Amino acid sequence: MGNTFGKLFKLTTYGESHGIAIGGILEGCPAGLELDLDAIQEQMARRKPGQSAIVTQRKEADQVIIHSGVFEGRTTGTPIGFVIENTNQKSKDYGHIKDSYRPSHADYVYDQKYGFRDYRGGGRSSARETACRVVGGAIARQFLKDISIHAFVSQVGTVGLEIPLNEIDYSRIESNPVRCPDAPTAAKMEELIKKVRKEGDTIGGVISCVIRNVPVGLGEPVFDKLHAELGKAMLSINAVKGFEYGSGFRGVTMKGSEHNDRYNPDGTTQTNNSGGVQGGISNGMDIYFNVAFKPVATLIQSYETIDKEGNEVEVQGKGRHDPCVVPRAVPIVEAMAALVLADYTLLARTNKMG
């Protein structure tokens, strides 16, 4: 339960951080889609650990092996089964938390819910599971084709990107390890992450996402509005604490006359406070949203906590962890957005005759 996302274009994932492998089953992908396996692997390379000096140094190739649903380079319409082997586990790094809980981590609640937990890297609660989402999202993007999805880091701690969305050069997102499309801001973010890492601490941040060329009509009111499903998708990602689309919380300071979108004579917009969604349905304008990530709960310093018996204990953190998750979470945000849009594209085909 809770391991499947989507209604028609549906992804189910399995596996733990330090198990033999992780993997998934993608159902609902139409037959005949020519699948670019290299493009899938490129997305995996953006998420994998060990890619730069500011992320966890766990080394995983994250090679995707497809077992079913693809024949002669095309999807068959049957479930696409895939696996990603875990090759660089160091389970001994987690022996110190076998009988205690990391504050603000899922350790305690998993133990209380199931009466038993895999303490190695957090088991199923580890962000390692998100690699499977990137595979599903990479396939979804190939199905969507004409829709472009660009996510980028817009804030780390108190260092924020101040360039307006319509002036951002998306080709520069991959030009630095932080994945911020502005070099000077990226340098400040990287400096902050390195400083925090040296202290054995962690820092949070914000990922912004812009989706273009979305057709009018995606969304299933009233309970499955497009923005609601995007919110669910983003909030299901590890460490996410907030989601806002369009004007978001800024909109509460505006009057209706200010907030209503205005259009040019040629049909283009002067403003897009709606964020590309009205009444839960895409309106053809760019969809944009922000996703807030908390500082990682696992610290590489001593901290006070409790053990299984409720005793207060002091634990010295160790292991390989991200000091800031947002650089590696960029492809995850894009993948979850793609899964939502692929699902709603298929659902839209059932909305009317002809």
Describe this entry's structure for a reader.
With 354 residues, this protein is of the alpha+beta class. It has a single domain (4-348), classed as Chorismate synthase AroC (Chorismate synthase, AroC fold, 4-Layer Sandwich). The protein contains 7 helices and 16 strands. The strands form 5 sheets. It has a 5-stranded antiparallel β-sheet, with helices on one face. The protein has a 5-stranded antiparallel β-sheet with strand order 9-8-10-14-11. It has a two-stranded antiparallel sheet with strand order 5-6. A hairpin with a 5-residue loop joins strand 15 and strand 16. Helix 1 (37-47) packs across helix 3, helix 3 crosses helix 7 and helix 5 runs antiparallel to helix 7. The chain is globular. It starts with a strand and ends in a 6-residue tail after the last helix.
